[in-house]
């Protein structure tokens, strides 16, 4: 059992509220309203910008070159890869770069991203990576589960690009690497006395992910 599995088991209810959220279920069965998906995509663009800052903060909080390189890889993945992918996906959903730039951040986006940043500012690198981990590993778990449930039906599915991206080998590897790095950090920096604090951070981040999905469901009706 790695540290990620321990955190997940300790915050099981919060984790389930995130990875089994209605938004995810509706995305899987194709019943998710397109307006909800679009609202989510816009906020996810704003989310990724803040996430890039969190990786920059991880570089600042690093004491070893290996940790700094891991932070740099996370930042590069967003700036050189993830953002382009996201803007292209948004384009296929009729959202222009100008629309993305002009959108105001929703409270749920502010709450989640600033929570993660504060974990890093007020804590150490382990706190920051624990707060980041639900989002990196959770999307890999959700993508793989939905792709597995759909099988060949994925080819003809309204949300195939999103599911295919997170179920794909490249993202699954990103999540495995993040997990391994977290485990190495914990082996170096964690005491058992600290575990319950970290599990609380992990649970809070998972709840904020669930709120992010809920925002997607609620926004088009707001
Ligand atoms: C709300 C929300 N949570 C998690 C992710 C997944 N994710 C977080 S950072 C990143 C780039 C990986 O290097 C990816 C794919 C997301 N996009 N939006």
UniProtKB/TrEMBL annotation:
Gene3D superfamilies: Heme oxygenase-like (1.20.910.10). The keyword Hydrolase applies. Keywords: Hydrolase, Thiamine biosynthesis. It holds the Pfam family TENA_THI-4. Pathway: Cofactor biosynthesis; thiamine diphosphate biosynthesis. InterPro entries: Haem_Oase-like_multi-hlx, Thiaminase-2/PQQC, Thiaminase_II, Thiamine_Salvage_TenA. It comes from the Bacteria. GO terms for biological process: thiamine biosynthetic process; thiamine diphosphate biosynthetic process. It catalyses: thiamine + H2O = 5-(2-hydroxyethyl)-4-methylthiazole + 4-amino-5-hydroxymethyl-2-methylpyrimidine + H(+); 4-amino-5-aminomethyl-2-methylpyrimidine + H2O = 4-amino-5-hydroxymethyl-2-methylpyrimidine + NH4(+). Its EC number is 3.5.99.2. GO terms for cellular component: cytosol. Residues 15-218 form the Thiaminase-2/PQQC domain. GO terms for molecular function: thiaminase activity. Belongs to the TenA family. Catalyzes an amino-pyrimidine hydrolysis reaction at the C5' of the pyrimidine moiety of thiamine compounds, a reaction that is part of a thiamine salvage pathway. This is Aminopyrimidine aminohydrolase.
């Amino acid at each position: 059992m790695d540290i990620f599995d321990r955190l997940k088991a300790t915050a099981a209810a919060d984790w389930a509220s995130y990875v089994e959220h209605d938004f995810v279920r509706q995305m899987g069965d194709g019943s998710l309203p397109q307006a909800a998906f679009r609202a989510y995509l816009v906020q996810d663009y704003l989310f990724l910008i803040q996430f890039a800052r969190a990786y920059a903060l991880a570089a600042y909080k690093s004491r070893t070159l290996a940790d700094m390189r891991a932070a740099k890889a996370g930042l590069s993945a967003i700036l050189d890869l993830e953002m382009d992918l996201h803007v292209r996906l948004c384009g296929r959903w009729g959202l222009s770069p100008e629309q993305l730039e002009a959108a105001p951040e929703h409270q749920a986006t502010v709450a989640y991203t600033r929570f993660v940043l504060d974990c890093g500012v007020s804590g150490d690198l382990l706190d920051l990576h624990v707060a980041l981990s639900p989002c990196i590993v959770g999307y890999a778990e959700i993508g793989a589960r939905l792709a597995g449930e759909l099988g060949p039906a994925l080819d003809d599915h309204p949300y195939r690009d999103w599911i295919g991206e997170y179920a794909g080998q490249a993202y699954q590897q990103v999540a495995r690497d993040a997990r391994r790095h977290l485990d190495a950090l914990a082996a170096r920096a964690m005491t058992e006395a600290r575990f319950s604090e970290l599990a609380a951070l992990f649970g809070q981040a998972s709840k904020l992910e669930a709120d992010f999905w809920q925002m997607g469901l609620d926004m088009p009706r707001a």
